Amino acid sequence: MKAIIIDGEPGIGNLRLVDRPIPSPRRQEVVVRVLATALNYRDLEIVRGSYHTRFPLPLIPISDGVGEIVAIGEDVTRVAVGDRVCSTFWQRWVGGSFDMAEPHYQRGGPLDGLLAEYAALDEQAVLPAPADLTDLEAATLPCAGVTAWHSLITAGHLNAGNTILVLGTGGVSIFALQFAVNAGARVIVTSSSDEKIERAKALGASAGVNYRKHPQWGEAVLELTGGRGVDHILEVGGPESFAQSLKAVRRGGQISVIGYLGGTEGTINPLDIFRRQVTVRGIPVGSRASFEAMNRAIDTGKLRPMIDRCYPWTDIAQALHHLEEGSHFGKIVLRH
User: Fold this and answer.
1) Which of 17, 103, 183, 197 sits in a 20 to 30 Å window from 5, CA-based?
2) Which CATH superfamily groups domain 156-282?
């Protein structure tokens, strides 16, 4: 089979197309023919060597994908040959608290990812893809979709009538917008682009703030909420934006810390968290149980993931550069 590896040293220029044997399933494993994959910022960082953890190379990158099961190992009972399944990011976090997640079993690093024609997966690390979604749409779910769902629903206990703030229009933020609107919540979005804000409104956002025009966007969000602040913020920017998030959140509200697209430099005053009595929670994607619950909501709500652009999977370098530019709206996907 063909696979793409990070070869020798990290770097987009060090991605290599190689021949590997088609894996054979071991006990309680399945082998899938990969149909589509999707990019996350984590994948970009791992490829270029800027991720906070360095993994042994060579490594097949990319954690998220969907495939058709072509072989099963001994004692596999959850799925069958011919099933179309999504992978999970945490291969052994089936449910329960984060204590159940094992750091050494993350797909796409340190475990080989899905940027290949075939992949062997633990049967506990796959679940049926939503029937109404295309392969490309289903491939977007494992990280961005589950992260948004885990933030708002599993851990955040979103209620109808809550006001949610999502930062930017990347994959996690757009999923959060869709889930929140589907649950009857009000959504405010930030972006550097008025055009993207209008696109977000077309998906159900009630208002938007252009942070280029309003660097103190926390104050603008307060104005939009009559001075009260929002109930829940999906914080993807990092320390620099966190200070504005603390201004925008209501007293006793929640901030889900998901990423650091704005960088890792900056300071956070813990007294500001204390004064606002804010719950700050790190979001480590989510368990398979969260994934399954999200899929049920996608089915009943007839939700469709937002795809920004699709590339052939062997054009991974071009796709990563597009992700690096930060101009996307929704998810970047790869067709296998």
Assistant:
1) 103
2) NAD(P)-binding Rossmann-like Domain (3.40.50.720)
CA distances (Å), origin 178, targets 172, 202, 250? 10, 11, 22
pLDDT tens-digit map of 67-124: 999 999 999 999 999 999 999 999 999 999 988 888 889 999 999 999 999 999 999 9
Cβ(119)–Cβ(34) under 8 Å?
yes
Give the per-residue pLDDT at 104: 86
Q: Residue 244: is it exposed, middle or buried by C-beta count within 10 angstroms (0-12/13-18/19+)?
A: buried
- The reported pLDDT for the residue numbered 275 is 81
Identify the pLDDT of residue 284.
Answer: 92
Cβ-count burial 245-278 (b if 16+ within 10 Å, e if not): bbbbbbeebbbbbbbbebeeeeeeeeeebeebeb
The amino acid sitting at 28 is Q
